[in-house]
C-alpha cells in the first residue's frame, strides 16, 4: 500500500508525520499572530498629519466662542452699566464654572464608552449648548442677565473643551503629544484671530453699525456672536464625524506597557482613607474660617468684599473633604466626588510642579482679558465713556490686538515644537513666558494705537506656549484611565488664579493704582516673568520614560 491514507481514512507513515507537522506549524503561527497582535495593541500608532488635524479641528470653533467672550464681554458689561471696578467680580462666573464643570466632565468621560465614543459625546453636547448661549448673550436686556449668561456660556464651552485635552492624551503616543497640543494651539489661534477682529471687520469692511443707543449692544457685536455660534457647532461636528477613539481595553494595555518600561507605578489605584479625608478636611475648613474671620474683622472686608469669595472657597473645599471622609466610611471604592478628591490628593508630582507655573501664567492672562479694553481706551484713547465713538473705536482696536496675538500663537504652534526638540519643552516654555511678560510691561510706554501691535507678538508666543507646553509635559505623567479626570483637576490651577484675580484686582486697580488700569497689565507682566522662572523646577515625566525606554 502507499504511504498515504485512502480518502476518508486514517493517515499512516509519512502522511501521519506530515499531518502532525502541519498541525504544529498552524499552532505556532497562531501563537505568533497572537503575540504580534498583543505587541500592536500595546503601542499607540503614529497618526498622520491630517488625522491630528481632524481630531483638533473642533478647537477652531471652541476658541471662536471663547475669543468672542474674552474680547467683548467686558464691553457688554460696561455698555449695560457696569463700573470698571465691578468687572472682575462679574467675570468670576467663568473661572468658578470651570472649577466645577471640568473635573466632573473629565470624570464622566473617563467612565463613558458607547457607540459614539468616550470623549466625542461631550464635544457635541457642549457645542449645542454653547451655540445657544452665543445667540442669546448679546441680546441680554440687563447687566445681571448678561452676567448669568456668562455662567451658562462658559459652562457650555467647558463641557466641550475639557475632553479635547484628554483626547490628545488618549490618541497620541508620547512623541506626538507636543505636536497634538500644538495643533490645538494652531486652531485656537486661528479661530481667535477671526473672532477677535470680527466686530472691526463687520464695521470697517461691511459697514455694520458699531454704536448703539446707551444701554444697547451694537449690531457689530451681535452679528459676531451669531456667526461664532454657527462656526463653533460646525467645527466640533467635523471632529466628531472624522475622528476615532481607542477602547478602554486598548488604553489599559498602553498604560500597562508604559509602567513596565518606566518602572513607575500609576497612583490611580491609591485610595485615600476616611481618616485622611477627615484630617485634611478639618485643616482646610479651619483655614477657610480663619481667613473669612480675618477679612471680616479687619478693614479688608469693608474695602473689598470680593475677598470673601477666597475665604468661602477655602471653607467649601474643607467641607467637601469632610463629606468625602464620611462617604468613604460607607464605600470601599472611591467614585464621583470622592473619586475626584482622591485623585486630587494623589496627583502626580509633575502636576503639582506645573501648578505653580500655571498660577502665575493664568493670573496674567486673566488680567489681560478683563482689563485690556478699559486700559487701552483710558491710557491710549483717553476716554472712559463707553457710549462714545472714541471708546468704541478703542474697543474695536482691542479686538484687532487680540486677533494679532492669537494669530502669532497660531504661527507659534509650528515653531514651538521645533524649538522644544532642540532645547527641551521646559526651556521653550520659559522663553515664551518671558517674552509675554516683557510685552505686557511695554504697554505702559506706548501711546500710539498702531504701536500696540508690537507687544502682541510676545503675548502671542506666550499664549501659544501656555496652550501646548504644560499639557504636553503633564500628559506623560497621567494614568490612561484617569486622563480626563486629571485634565479637569489640572484646570483647578488655571481657575484658582482667575478667582483670586477677580477677587483682588478690582481693589488693586481702584485703590492701589488709583484707577490707572494700565498698571494692572504691568502687574500681569511681572506675574508672567515669575511663571517663566518657576518652569525650571518642573520634572518632565516623558523625559524619564524615554530614557528608560532607550536603556531597555
Helix-strand makeup class? mainly alpha
The CATH architecture comes to Up-down Bundle
Strand content: under 5%
Q: Per the principal axes of the C-alpha atoms, what is the gross shape?
A: globular
Q: How many DSSP H or I helices?
A: 23
CATH superfamily: MFS general substrate transporter like domains
How far from one another are the termini?
A: 58 Å
Would you write up a description of this structure?
Helix content is 76%, strand content 0%. It has a single domain, classed as Growth Hormone, Chain: A, CATH 1.20.1250. The protein is mainly alpha-helical and 552 residues long. The chain is globular, with a radius of gyration of 27 Å.
Task: Offer a quick outline of the entry.
This protein has 552 residues and is mostly helical.
Architecture blueprint of SSEs:
Layout: H1 13-41, H2 49-56, H3 58-79, H4 87-91, H5 93-110, H6 120-136, H7 143-171, H8 174-206, H9 219-242, H10 248-262, H11 274-297, H12 300-303, H13 308-329, H14 336-345, H15 349-379, H16 389-423, H17 425-442, H18 455-466, H19 469-475, H20 483-490, H21 492-512, H22 518-534, H23 541-551
What labels describe this entry?
0% strand, disordered N terminus, mainly alpha, 552 residues
Amino acid at each position: 500500500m502507499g504511504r498515504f491514507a485512502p480518502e476518508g481514512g486514517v493517515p499512516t507513515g509519512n502522511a501521519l508525520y506530515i499531518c502532525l507537522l502541519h498541525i504544529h506549524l498552524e499552532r505556532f503561527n497562531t501563537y505568533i499572530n497572537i503575540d504580534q497582535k498583543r505587541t500592536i495593541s500595546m503601542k499607540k500608532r503614529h497618526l498622520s498629519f491630517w488625522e491630528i488635524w481632524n481630531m483638533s479641528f473642533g478647537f477652531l470653533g471652541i476658541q471662536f466662542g471663547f475669543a468672542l467672550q474674552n474680547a467683548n464681554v467686558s464691553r457688554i458689561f460696561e455698555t449695560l452699566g457696569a463700573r470698571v471696578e465691578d468687572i472682575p467680580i462679574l467675570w468670576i462666573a467663568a473661572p468658578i464654572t470651570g472649577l466645577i464643570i471640568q473635573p466632573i466632565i473629565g470624570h464622566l468621560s473617563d467612565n463613558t464608552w458607547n457607540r459614539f465614543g468616550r470623549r466625542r459625546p461631550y464635544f457635541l453636547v457642549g457645542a449645542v449648548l454653547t451655540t445657544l448661549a452665543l445667540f442669546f448673550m448679546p441680546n441680554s436686556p440687563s447687566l445681571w442677565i448678561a452676567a448669568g449668561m456668562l455662567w451658562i456660556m462658559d459652562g457650555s464651552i467647558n463641557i466641550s473643551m475639557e475632553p479635547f485635552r484628554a483626547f490628545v492624551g488618549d490618541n497620541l503616543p508620547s512623541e506626538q503629544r507636543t505636536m497634538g497640543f500644538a495643533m490645538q494651539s494652531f486652531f485656537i489661534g486661528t479661530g481667535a484671530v477671526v473672532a477677535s477682529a470680527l466686530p472691526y471687520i463687520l464695521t470697517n469692511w461691511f459697514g455694520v453699525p458699531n454704536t448703539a443707543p446707551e444701554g444697547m449692544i451694537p449690531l457689530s457685536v451681535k452679528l459676531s456672536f451669531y456667526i461664532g455660534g454657527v462656526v463653533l457647532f460646525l467645527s466640533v461636528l467635523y471632529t466628531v464625524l472624522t475622528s476615532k477613539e481607542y477602547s478602554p481595553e486598548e488604553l489599559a494595555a498602553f498604560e500597562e506597557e508604559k509602567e513596565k518600561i518606566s518602572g513607575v507605578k500609576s497612583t490611580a489605584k491609591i485610595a485615600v482613607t476616611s481618616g485622611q479625608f477627615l484630617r485634611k478636611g478639618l485643616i482646610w475648613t479651619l483655614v477657610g474660617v480663619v481667613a473669612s474671620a480675618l477679612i471680616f474683622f479687619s478693614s479688608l472686608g469693608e474695602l473689598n468684599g470680593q475677598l470673601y469669595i477666597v475665604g468661602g472657597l477655602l471653607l467649601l473645599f474643607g467641607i467637601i473633604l469632610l463629606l468625602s471622609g464620611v462617604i468613604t466610611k460607607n464605600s470601599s471604592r472611591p467614585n464621583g466626588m470622592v473619586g475626584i478628591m482622591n485623585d486630587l490628593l494623589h496627583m502626580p508630582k509633575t502636576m503639582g510642579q506645573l501648578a505653580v507655573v500655571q498660577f502665575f501664567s493664568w493670573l496674567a492672562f486673566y488680567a489681560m482679558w478683563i482689563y485690556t479694553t478699559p486700559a487701552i481706551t483710558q491710557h491710549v484713547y483717553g476716554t472712559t465713556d463707553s457710549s462714545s465713538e472714541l471708546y468704541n473705536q478703542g474697543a474695536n482696536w482691542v479686538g484687532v490686538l487680540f486677533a494679532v496675538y492669537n494669530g502669532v500663537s497660531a504661527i507659534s504652534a509650528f515653531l514651538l515644537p521645533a524649538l522644544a526638540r532642540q532645547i527641551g519643552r521646559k526651556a521653550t516654555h520659559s522663553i515664551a513666558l518671558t517674552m509675554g511678560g516683557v510685552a505686557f510691561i511695554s504697554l505702559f510706554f506706548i501711546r500710539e494705537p498702531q504701536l500696540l501691535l508690537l507687544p502682541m507678538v510676545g503675548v502671542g508666543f506666550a499664549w501659544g506656549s501656555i496652550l501646548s507646553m504644560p499639557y504636553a509635559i503633564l500628559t506623560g505623567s497621567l494614568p490612561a484611565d484617569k486622563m480626563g479626570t486629571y485634565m479637569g483637576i489640572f484646570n483647578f490651577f488655571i481657575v484658582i488664579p482667575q478667582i483670586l484675580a477677580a477677587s483682588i484686582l478690582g481693589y488693586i486697580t481702584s485703590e492701589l493704582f488709583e484707577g490707572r488700569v494700565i498698571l494692572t497689565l504691568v502687574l500681569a507682566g511681572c506675574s508672567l516673568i515669575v511663571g517663566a522662572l518657576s518652569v525650571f523646577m518642573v520634572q518632565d515625566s516623558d523625559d524619564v520614560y524615554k530614557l528608560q525606554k532607550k536603556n531597555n
